[in-house]
Amino acid sequence: MVEKLNVENIPKELRLILELLKYDNPSKILEINKNLFQAINWDMFIDLAMHHRVYPVLYSKLRMGDRNLIPEFVVDKIYKHYKQNTFQMLFLTAEMEEVSKMFAANNIPVLLLKGPALAHDLYGDISLRTSSDLDVLIPIEQLDSAEEILLDLGYQKDDYIKTVLNDWKWRHHHITFIHPLKKIKVEIHWRLSPGPAKEPGFAELWERRRQSKLTNQPMYLLGKSDLFLFLIAHGARHGWSRIRWLLDIHQLVGKELNAEEVHKLLQDYHSLHLGGQSLILATELLNTKLSTKMELLCTRARSWKLAQGAIFYLERMVNLHTDPVPESAAKYHKQHLFALMSFRQKCIFILSFLYPYPEDKETLPLPLPLHFLYFPLRPFLWAWRKTRKQALT
Predict the structure, then answer these.
(1) For residue 326, is the peptide bond before it cis, meaning its omega torsion is within 30 degrees of 0?
(2) Mean pLDDT for the stretch of residues 117-137
(3) Please, what are the domains in the chain?
(4) For residues 306 and 79, what is the distance between their CA atoms, to the nearest angstrom?
(5) What whole-number distance in Å separates Cα of residue 311 and Cα of residue 284?
């Protein structure tokens, strides 16, 4: 088993950020390694703090430290973004209340996945975490009702999902609505993660829900163990390419997780290796303290290999949300995603290629009653597209 992650190729600016996140007072870092502050590209330091979405917590550390350690312009720039984020989170909180109230009035149960409610739950202060949108989970049967409510509130549906034979239900896990005036995005989830991942159903998650203490309006969060399952799956799926997601794990682990409950949940949903990966990264990079039972999740060789694989994303600023993703990063990420899957998930994933894709319908439009023919025709349609693509290049 690997005992230490190789982090030598992580930029020194990011290594300094990671050290700052570990301590309440930056001055303490001098006692450990004075060289960390030497030859720092402070513009890169700011860019990395923004990219990894850790600038709110970082500012809370910097304002308590020795101003001689870090240039004034750096602290001022991070404070400016911290202040903007605070206003953004207050704005999102008001919108979250309004949307939740409308859903409740129409008997739509809602679980808040991210946004201000998560920030308050993990950090105790909405200003210490960033959020660009609101993510909520509802029963799939309520999607039409939820869409009608959001349209009434002035939102517009982002119709980016193409589908054939209802494959959207398992190939995707959310739909997006954007308010053109408020510039707020709401993602309505019917799954925690895209298929082929196995996960708890909504009724089970609802039974274990917790009430948010952020507002007087009753709003609900995932149970702690379910939240851990969701956060590790989300972070792993994005390569832990933002330190903020690891910081969330760091905060959640400090909330007295029930290790036995977590272990059973991860085992039931084939995610023990992902739990180990997240905890290894958190302990190695952020000095997260684990209970003896939680440490057991870090003993698997596969988890260490996956954790080391995630360091790739920290050695460079990989933004998986903005196209075009560099070809080398896209290729690596595709391989990393496959490595994250359990054996069962890999089998389902490979078999899913036999299920018709929207591209098949575009290649050979057929009337709805004949859509079943896409199953036997799929290999031929795929080969035709491949041949055409090669001919064009």
Answers:
(1) no
(2) 96
(3) 12-348 (3.30.460.40), 361-392 (no CATH)
(4) 35
(5) 11
